[in-house]
Amino acid sequence: MPEDGVVRTGLMTVLASHKEGAVLSLVAVPRAASTEFVGLEREAVRVRVAAPPVDGAANDALVRFLARALVVPRSRVKILSGETGRRKRLLFMGMSQEELGQRLNVAGVAR
């Protein structure tokens, strides 16, 4: 196991196709010092979120961060499942699985 405890995996294992676009599986860690990508785990991308998980603040911050980091309008990012938990599935509307993977690579997630 790597020193940081995060088991790396291939980017395509965290992505799925959807009739409306592409789905990203992630784990959100609220109340972090800053909002940032941590990296890939077995089945998800780990993202630290500075906002607390109160009244949807962490979800809002997560969607804003992902939209900005992946250069996607916020209106095209929707939480499909996991609104009240750390494990989430987010839909990127109008985007293919391959395009989402490329944007994640550009954002440095697979490094």
Describe the protein's architecture and organization:
The chain is of the alpha+beta class and 111 residues long. It has one domain: YggU-like (Conserved Hypothetical Protein Mth637, Chain: A, 2-Layer Sandwich). It is 21% helix and 31% strand. It is built from two helices and six strands, in the order ββββαββα. It has helices spanning 57-69, 97-106; strands at 15-18, 21-29, 36-40, 45-48, 77-81, 87-93. Strands 1, 2, 3, 4, 5 and 6 form a six-stranded mixed beta sheet that branches. The longest helix has 13 residues, at 57-69. The radius of gyration is 13 Å and the shape is globular. It starts with 14 loop residues before the first strand and ends in a 5-residue tail after the last helix. Residues 1-8 have low confidence and may be disordered.
Descriptive terms for the model:
2 helices; Conserved Hypothetical Protein Mth637, Chain: A; disordered N terminus; globular; alpha+beta; 111 residues; 6-stranded mixed β-sheet
- Please give the share of residues in helix: 10-25%
**Class derived from helix and strand content:** alpha+beta
Q: How many structural domains in the coordinates?
A: 1
What is the makeup of the main sheet? 6 strands, mixed
Might you state the CATH topology name?
Conserved Hypothetical Protein Mth637, Chain: A
The number of helical segments is: 2
Question: SSE string, helix = H, strand = E?
Answer: EEEEHEEH
